[in-house]
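Annotated sample (chain length 181).
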Amino acid sequence: MAPNLKLYTILSYLLIPIALFFGFLDIIFLFSSLANPSALILVFILACLVIYTFASFRFLKGGIEKELPQPLKLKDWIKVNAYVSFFLCSLFFINSISVLVSTNAVLMKFIDEFLEQQPTLPKEITHQLILSLLRGVSIFLLFTSIIGLIHIRTSLRLVKQYERSEEHTSELQSHSFISYA
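Output written by the structure step:
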């Protein structure tokens, strides 16, 4: 297996638990979007990340490792969902970097504004707790975005590469005297 395929395989296995987590969140957001239909866009975007992850994993297992021809529909699902997932991972990356490079004073200002808008929050939720949660979530999203962006870039390249090799194979089969049926 080529070194970039080893990295791609590792990233694919790392994306599966992340996709399961986002799939669980997506179900929760789906129920909450019944009260607020404008939240359906978030449900759609998260669903694209989950669909992309499992479609690309299927492509890895069947199309790359077993070298079976994959339906064009699967490749289309990968491409469409990859573009939306690329957008989401880019947003994760930008937001994570902006939080992680911000000083505690700047973040505390935003936390103060947040807490003023939430007067019913329990007293146990302190500024430090929110700050540590914000930094922890930012690290998780940075990790997710880096894995996602690398994986998406590689997936799109592999889908294009395997489309060409399948076209070449079908062209050779159509010009040969031997039927492969």
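Annotation: The chain is about 80% helix and 0% strand.
Annotation: Residues 127-175 form the longest helix (49 residues).
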